[in-house]
Amino acid sequence: MLFCLPWCVDFVQVQSTVYANSMFTRSALLTALRRSGRLPACNDGFRSAGKCRTFLNIFRNLRPTSEPPPALNDNDLFHPFSKSPFPAVRARGETIQSLALCPVCTSESKHTGGSPSRVKYECPDCGWPSHCSEEHWEVDEEHKKYCSRLREVNEDEHDLRRGRKMREFHLPGPQAYEEAISFANWDLFWYTRGFPSMDTERSRRHATKLLTYPLTIGSVLHQNSGLTLNNRRVTPEGSRSLAALRTTLHVPPGAPDTEEAGAAKPQIRVFILGARAESSLPPHVWEQLCMLFPSCHLHLFFIGPQVSLPKPADEAVAQDTKSSASSTTEQREECKESPPLYVPNIYQPPAPKPIARLKRTRSSVQLYGFPSYTVPYTPQLTVTGIQANYSEVHGQFEETFDPYTDAFFLFSPGFGFPSMTSVSESNGIPLLQIASPTEWGPVIPALLASRCSIFVTGFSPEDMERDIRSLGITPNVAGEFEWVINPGINIFGSEKWEVADFDPRVMVKANWGLWAIRGKGRQIRKW
Ligand SMILES: [Zn+2]
Ligand SMILES: [Zn+2]
């Protein structure tokens, strides 16, 4: 898929894993952090920090051991890409130099017909390779408009890698059932969930980028959702669909929404189709979604050709042995980064790096017939990843879909982009991906037939508009759906700009907008 944000999670998730999951299991990590004095002995939520001492550790010295200083200090986060102390940033600079064209040359070549040069010169203000030469940088008035944004991204990249303690990735434990969660905005959500306060815009950007996937799902499905009939984001048909899901996600009014209350409830299945980087978010980040629905059993299915799979078992064992060193040393080691240093964020990038193999990770290839795995991560959360086109496995689920328990999420699916693989038989022009037989063509009619809600995000107003416009002109889709959520801003989108390597002028935000549809259900169409 063209320019489809596989890069939205990348290093934030790596950092989060390093910080919060470096020994593959959360419990092992917590033990390590407790031993080092960086966490209180009982971590049932950030709010409990410093309060909770059990009888056995009451005499233990909880004074924090001295932290090694970060590689860069707060005032030293800006570095031109080619002079960055971090190999991955230097590698990204080289990638951009090999892909992006000078914007001044490009507009000149439209008149002269010459071929534009690639970017070689690094803007001294933002550090990105931006033009072919200093002369062209000087004459480009446009660059000034987005230079400060690029500088912000440059500093964020260095901040992530400098080895400071990332408090913004410290995720809280379960919610007490009498404490309501607000989904009005990120700030109220963080406050009501007991996250550490996000003191700087930079912390906000890191945290929103990490949490946007689970929170986009959670904030839409939850009964306290900010999307309502009153603010016209939810349609009357949509409110019925959401009410159906919420009868399974929550408990009857007045009853305590606790783990015990969910004993007899069916599982909620969330199918994330065309999943890419979000499939490699560590499970403890997805666990934040479960904590919004304490009585719910959640099964996440990541399905798509770019779903990331666990490391092979033998490799995981080798790495496990290695990870017996202290967590701080590991964090540093991870910062050194091993090749490939940087994967360009263009076109059809490969599946993200393999994810950690957890103790209970098991292969599901026998079950689904494709490379796949399942992890029962906690009693509330099971994660399955299937590396296949959804249309290849639809038949296995088709008979089981139920609008009361199942929902589909498609993060920036690129419906309206031209297909990379299929062209129209009549005129040879590439089909749109929503109509392409190798991409979404067979998928969307099948999802509509299930009558379950289909939630879709877009990374910019234009992206969302392009996708929605494509619905209206696609056979078997146009006229076959009704709106569940009217298109608009996603309150829980990432606040971080993502910059395209092939043209640093292109900047978007993951999950910027959100909408949802469902099938009209006049008939049950066969696959
Ligand atoms: Zn130029
Ligand atoms: Zn600049």
TrEMBL record:
Pfam families reported for this sequence: MSS51_C, zf-Mss51
- Biased-composition ranges, Polar residues, are 320-329
Residues covered by region (Disordered): 313-343
- Describe the location of the Mitochondrial splicing suppressor 51 zinc-finger domain by residue ranges: 101-160
Origin: domain of life: Eukaryota
Q: Which residues form the Mitochondrial splicing suppressor 51-like C-terminal domain?
A: 214-499
- Mind telling me which InterPro entries this protein's record contains? Mss51-like_C, Mss51_Znf
Q: What is this protein called?
A: Protein MSS51, mitochondrial
Q: Which organism is it from?
A: Pisolithus microcarpus 441
